[in-house]
Amino acid sequence: CGVALIAVGIYAQVALNKALAVSSASASGTPVAILVLGVIIFFISFFGCCGAWKESYCMVTTFAVLLSIIFLVEVAAAIAGYVFKDKVRSVLEDRLWDAMRQYGEDEALTEAVDELQMDFACCGVNNYTDWATIKRFKVNDTVPLSCCRVNSTSCNVHPSPATVYEKGCLQSIEAWMKKNILIVAAVALGIAFFEILGIIFACCLMKGIRSGYEVM
Length: 216
Fold this sequence. Notes:
By secondary structure, the protein is mainly α. It is about 75% helix and about 0% strand.
């Protein structure tokens, strides 16, 4: 389960790298938090294996308690994620607008926006007309070249749905997340199932070890 969480954390960090570059620090910390949780579970599991191998009542009990705490934290995180899902959308939208306003001024941010628009085949926040609200693009009636759906140096001049991506990046990112949420949910349920099994088996082992002590 720890390895699975580590894999999910790395996948989320890589897949959302460009989107996170224009998002908030709290959003960018989510994949890292999943990764850290995976590492913690991995070492706790190793601790539990040692306790089972040595038949140490104290180590197995500690393992069961720590695993129970992690399970409760994961349940709380899932509930919080569902409750604040609209807030996450609002924060992402605000950060996308901020990134558009700083386009051309911050080199790293400009590159992140360009790669985001090309990777997700999108333009602007809600649609390509959002760039018309940015002064430097409004003057010449243009959009960034990364919005172009055709390979041409003039495709970004007087943009239209025929030459640039019409769909906004907010919508594209949301669609990507909905498409992959089933994978994340399946992994989370699988991990929760094995954590519950781990807690049950640890309790059974604790009972067996205690019985052995009583016999002795």
